[in-house]
Structures are given as structure tokens and as C-alpha cells.
Amino acid sequence: IAQPDGDYHFTLVHVTPSAITHQVFTVSDTNIVVDENKAGDEVTVEYDGVADLPYFRLKFELDKTIPQYLIAHESGDYLPFIQHDFENYRVVFAETSVSPGVTTFTALPANTIHTGISQVVDTTGYITFSSTPTNVSTNTGIQVMPNSLNTTISELAVTSRGYTWLEQPASQLVDTAYTLVDLSPQADVLVFVNEVLYARGQSTGAGQFEFIYTDDQSDRRFTVISRSAVTNLVTVPTDSGTAHVRTFSLAGQNVGNFFSANNRTGRFQLGYSPLGLAVTELNTERLFLHNVAGDKLATVSSTGETHSTANRLLVEQGNSIRTYRWSKAKQRLLATRRWKLTSQLIDWTVVNDTAIAVVLKNNRYTLVTDTQSRSLPRHITNVRITSCLCQTDSQSLPLVVWQKNNRTYFSQYTADLVKDTTKTIRLSGDIKQIVTGHVTDRTLDTVIVVMNDAAYLWQVKVSGRFKRLQTMSDVDQVGLVGDQLVTTTATRPTQVHVYENTNLVKVFYPYGETFTGGVTLALP
To answer: What is the pTM assigned to this prediction?
Structure first.
């Protein structure tokens, strides 16, 4: 069609049930090259025009033995499509828009599980979705293969530690094979089903883990936890001797030694984090950060507790909490933030990367963050706080422990510092240590309280209740290595006791049978 100035143009007409629209393109704007099936199931569109093409139909010629596909734009969005099967192949037409430049579209076999929707998986591993996913960002890459009948996967969520989902097979006799991906490489992987440990192993170097569920269950609620495969425990003398840091296997074999704090004699605390091993010299109020080989990386002031996240170190300094991050470029700790508390600091912890403290304000204990506060009950004493997987296996929440009238109370709080549940325990004495972690075959934490030279254990239940477990006697301090509980004895010379699911499996002397001082265990 000739325009008045002599140029030729095309008109793109789009007809829908409600409207007819058109767009004019000159000849110079319509140079389009479509390379179908460029690399397997890809279509590449090279468009040299100036204006966007709002309507464009792509054609794919695909393997018809694959029952279901998803068509993805290179931006990650899935495209609507129609399809028709011929004798030896399938033709799929997808509708999209095209901008100037080169754009790639890909046909993906629908055999990986997505978050946020319900999906039925057949015995070939292919999926029928309750509603079609809209973007590849919800694709977890997890593959599922039931052995005899279809199974339904729903409520899939990616957590900070792994995955959770619900499986409901057509029959409770269905066995289901799973292939998990995107886990931490060579990590310790635990698979819980309906809150009970079902399988355990190590992920591959590519972060993959496989297992088959064979128990007869109609509703199978899975929780997968992937964590660093910590296999060694680290010790330092508490109150006598030099800062001789020793590393042991859980079998009691000494596998590493170095001296911290410039080889001085004193009192020490110990902690480990992704940034390194932190040795605090209590006499001089200095923290020495070491790598696993014992090389000193940094020295900072510390007057109390230390906590860490993946790339940060949080250190108590007087009535403040100072945050450091590790600079790879400068190879040192950089101070990034100082939270100065206006009331007396009593105790603090880190919950989901947020520091939460207990302060004494106007003679009343108060729970505070840098943006909100919540008063604790009146007339209480010996207040401690820790992070706990007490209500859900995907999010840690604050757990406040306090005492009143010769009883101990566990109070669970929400992320907004609202008290949720409280457990009363007929137990009195000065709380020396409180630790939470996986020391049983359950997904939620076990709360461990050290007092009266004993360690008292309570297993958190899904209902919010606490189940009393056995008590370990002759305990000075406790530590955790993976999901194994480790204690040091109150009796001298100090022994290390290693437990597996609360059963004592190993006893050894970390500093010999003549050492009379206490021993501190590294805690994450």
C-alpha cells in the first residue's frame, strides 16, 4: 500500500471478540528473521524494526511423546499457547510480542514442580497444573515420579533451609521418587515426613539429592533441611591455661590445634560462624577472628555475646550491638552499624537476621528491636532470649525464658513481638546457658537449658507444647555439632560427652586427664 510520500507500509490487524485494532509499519520496519528450533526446542526471533510488534505468533515443532510443555520468553514469563498433534510430532503456536533485537523463546518439558500451585504428576513424571504458572521464577527444578498412580503436589515453598510441600497420592500404596536440586553442595540433607525423620544423606557437588518415599501414607507433609555438614567440635579452656583452640572429630580424634589471643593465659569464650572462628578474651575484652587453619583475620572489641549471619558478625560492645561485615576486597572486618540501647542490656540474640534484645527499662524487662518494643511480665528474674524454630520449621522466632516464684517459663513470641504461648516448668535455679537446635529426629527445635550442673531438654511440638525429654547430669556447658548434642562435664578433669539423638555415644578428655580447668564448646 503506497503512502502519499511514496513509501510502502504494512498494517497489522488484530481481531478479538471485543475489538479490532491495527498498527502501521513501513517496509523498513519489518525485517524479521525467525530461526525455528535453533537449538533443540528454541525459537529465535531477530527483528530489526523500530516499533514493537504487539502481536506475534511463534511456531514450535515438538516431540509429541512429551505430554505437556511450557513456553518461556527469555525474560522468564510463560506464554499462552495452543497445540495440535500430527502423526509423528506436535505443533505448538504461542502468542507474544516482539521488541527490536534478538529474542529467544524456549519450549520446556513440564516435568518440574512449581511453587504456589497444585499440580498432578503422572507415572512418567509429567505434570498437569491446576492453574498454569506465569513465570519460571516459581520453577524449583524438583522432579517427582510416582510408581503406579498419579500423585498431587501442593503447598510447595522454598525456605531458608530447604523445601516444604504436601504430597497426596491417589493411593497410600504409591511410592514416590524425588530428585531435589539447588541445595547447598555436599550439605547434610534431612528429609522429614509428618514431622518424623525419614531419610538423611549428603547432597552432591551440584547440590542434588535423591530419595524414594515408600511408607503407606495418604497425606505426606515433607520438610527438607539442607545445612552445612559440620562434623567437628571445637574447644578452648574456659578459665585456666592459654587460648589453646583444639578441633576434634565426634569420635574424639584431635584433628587441629592453634593458639589464639597471642598465647596469653586468661578466660575465654568461643563461637563459630560462616565468617570464621571467634575467640573472645574476657580479660581484655577483645575478640579474635580466625579461619579454620587458625590464621588471625581480625581483632575487634567485645564485652559480651557474639552472634553471626551468613556475612555479618554482631558483637556486644558495652550497651551497644555493633555489626561488622567481611570485605573480600580489603580482607578485613568493616563496621557497618551500631545499635546503641538506651536501657540496660540484659541479653540478646539474632532472629532471621534481626537483632532482638532484652533490656531493663524503668525496673521492668522489655523486649526490643530497633523499631519496636514489648514489655515482659512484671516481677520476673533471670531473663534470657534465644532464637527457636518453635512454631514452624521454616521461620525462627524469639523464645524468651524467665523465672518467677521458683518456676521457669518458656514464652514464644511472634516476629512482631506479640506473645503467643507460654509453658510453665517446675524448675528453679540460675540459668547458665540456653541453646536450641536439632538433637532429636523432629523438624522443630529442642530447647536445652543448663542449670544446677544438668542439661534439661524439651522437644517443641507442632501444637506449641513442650515435651520433656531426658535430663543429662554432670553438665557444665553444651554445644551442637550438626544435630548432635555435645556437653562438657562439671566434674574435673573435664570430659566431652557426645550424644546422638540423646544417646551417649562417645566420651573423651579434650585437654588430657590432668587438666583441671573448664572447657568451652564452640556454638554457632
So the answer is: 0.68
